[in-house]
Amino acid sequence: MFGFVELFKDTEGLVLLVFILASVSSYSSGSAYGDSMLIQGLGAIKLIPLIILKSLSGISPLVAAICALAFLWYMGMLREIFGAPMMAVMTMALIILMVGG
Prior knowledge:
There is one protein chain. This protein is mostly helical. The protein has one domain. It is 75% helix and 0% strand. It is built from four helices and no strands. The protein has helices spanning 11-28, 37-56, 61-82, 84-99. The longest helix has 22 residues, at 61-82. The radius of gyration is 16 Å and the shape is flat.
């Protein structure tokens, strides 16, 4: 049996804790899973640059390659700034937002 402190020692535990808290808060208020501010906020950190770079990449194949490199650089910088556990939470939030919540 894990205690509360052990949840922060690995990435999976932190992701599980955040999504348990998000699902309890959103479902207790009668809303959908993607409607919680936690999921929208963390997912938007990746979703907004992804949408902007996707729209820019339609200009030409050369710009698409540059946008792909820019997005990979952005993901690398986010991982350095926030760390791997927070990046895992952001990625799960992005997936929930992209699927539709």
